[in-house]
Design goal:
3 strands; mainly alpha
């Protein structure tokens, strides 16, 4: 039976997890002088490889507004972690990592994997797959609820 307390429990658990993730990111990224937003963009650019990503693509992938992505990319450029690949206009420019950016992204990816192993190490893989499938469905349903109730 679905109750309002279940939704409140869900929201509370998600908030607790999110705060723990933010604290872990902040502590681990201090070494690189990067914020969580820098780290997210750096990792997304690493995933994109030589194709790079535009500001709009990064904003969509990370759920950030384009102004924040613009600031983050400017800071990544000033630290020699990222560079624009072409001059196709402000939001159409594709950004790629420099060799220093790829090195930092690789080290950060290793840190993320070690935290991930620690957090999910005692949970069977099948349970993790069900969890993410279920969480994805809940997120989709909440977005549909916004359209229905707002």
């Amino acid at each position: 039976m679905l109750t309002t307390s279940r939704l409140a429990l869900f929201a509370g658990l998600i908030n607790r997890a999110s705060k723990s993730i933010q604290r872990l990111k902040a502590a681990k990224m201090k070494r690189y002088d990067l914020s969580a937003a820098h780290t997210a963009c750096l990792c997304r650019l690493a995933e994109a490889g030589e194709a790079g990503l535009t500001q709009s693509e990064l904003a969509g992938l990370e759920g950030m507004d384009r102004a924040q992505v613009c600031r983050v990319l400017g800071e990544l450029q000033s630290r020699n972690y990222a560079l624009p690949a072409a001059q196709d206009g402000r939001y159409k420019k594709r950004y790629c990592l420099t060799s220093a950016g790829r090195k930092a992204a690789g080290e950060i990816d290793g840190l993320i994997l070690s935290i991930n192993r620690f957090v999910s190490g005692c949970i069977p893989e099948e349970d993790i797959e069900v969890f993410y499938r279920t969480l994805t469905r809940i997120a989709e349903n909440l977005e549909r609820a916004e359209a229905e109730f707002l």
